[in-house]
Write a structure and sequence with these properties.
single chain, 2 strands, elongated, about 70% helix, about 170 residues, mainly alpha
């Protein structure tokens, strides 16, 4: 059973790592470290554990851990009587990603509103062929989607900030 969980975790580390490479422009090892830390959870993971599990050299893991800390993606804590650092995800990082998503959606909403307004104005012009008029349904539906998605992600952000989640 333990072996299956380990295989499943490492497959997910790989999949999530590829995602972070593409979306966050992280180096492959840094992306795998971040993924591994996320999937290890709030108990944290040690440097030694990452070296053995991720099969990378100490210097590679060390360099990427430093880089992820500089980016404020991760942080660490120590336990009394234990000299090891336990690396965990920085909760503020999640909020920053949510904020970035909200801002992108706001820009998209503004852009689609402007496009829709332009098309509405064009539709008011004398157009001889009704088939040439712009169909505004896509923009209406897209703006509605962005409004609903934004409200949902803002609710999630609020729950994160008031510590309703123990991440």
């Amino acid at each position: 059973m333990e072996d299956n969980i380990c295989k499943e975790k490492m497959a997910l580390v790989e999949k999530l790592g590829v995602h972070f490479e593409n979306t966050e422009q992280l180096a492959p090892v840094a992306a795998r470290i971040l993924s591994y830390i996320i999937l290890t959870g709030k108990k944290g993971t040690t440097f030694e554990d990452m070296v053995s599990t991720l099969c990378a050299s100490k210097s590679t893991i060390s360099n990427h851990l430093s880089h992820l800390q500089d980016l404020k993606e991760i942080q660490y804590y120590t336990k009394t009587g234990d000299r090891k650092k336990y690396f965990i995800l920085n909760k503020d990082t999640i909020i920053q990603h949510v904020d970035k998503m909200i801002n992108v959606w706001k820009e998209l909403r503004e852009l689609h509103s402007e496009i829709k307004n332009y098309k509405e104005d064009q539709n008011k012009q004398k157009i001889e062929n009704e088939k040439e008029k712009f169909d505004l349904n896509f923009h209406n539906d897209y703006i509605k989607f962005i409004d609903e998605a934004s409200a949902s992600i803002e609710e999630l952000r609020l729950k994160i900030t008031v510590n309703q989640f123990d991440i």
